[in-house]
Write a structure and sequence with these properties.
The chain is built from 6 helices and 2 strands, in the order H-E-H-H-E-H-H-H. The longest helix has 24 residues.
């Protein structure tokens, strides 16, 4: 298809997305800083400025989206997950015969360590 326009292909793509009713336009690899607008010295950047004014708040750079939606796990959520895993392992050990033997071994080792510590004091 041929889309005649006075601006750059980037401008036409943004205007087409706006015309089709896009509520959010995520741009990848576009010219987005003032230095890029002023230092390029190419023709057509006035139309890019006007296109940006028209599209307005719908246009978001891909770097901005990745910074906004960074998945973060809080320390509390991680601690709850670890505690739930430990509780699950302890319940599984208490129910199984091999787990009971292992818990008895750990209990004996704990009593030995306690006895050794009381002997030091």
């Amino acid at each position: 298809m041929l889309f005649p326009g006075p601006g750059t292909s980037e401008d036409i793509a943004l205007l087409m997305a706006d015309e089709k009713g896009a509520s959010l336009i995520v741009a990848v690899g576009t010219h987005n800083t003032l230095d890029e607008f002023l230092d390029k010295g190419r023709s057509g950047f006035s139309s890019t400025f006007l296109t940006r004014l028209r599209v307005g708040g719908k246009l978001v750079d891909a770097k901005g989206v990745s910074r906004l939606y960074r998945p973060r796990v809080s320390g509390w959520a991680l601690m709850v997950l670890v505690l739930a895993a430990c509780a699950t392992i302890l319940v599984a050990m208490a129910v199984s015969p091999a787990g009971k033997i292992f818990l008895l071994y750990l209990s004996t080792q704990w009593d030995t360590a306690k006895y050794w510590l009381t002997g030091l004091l």
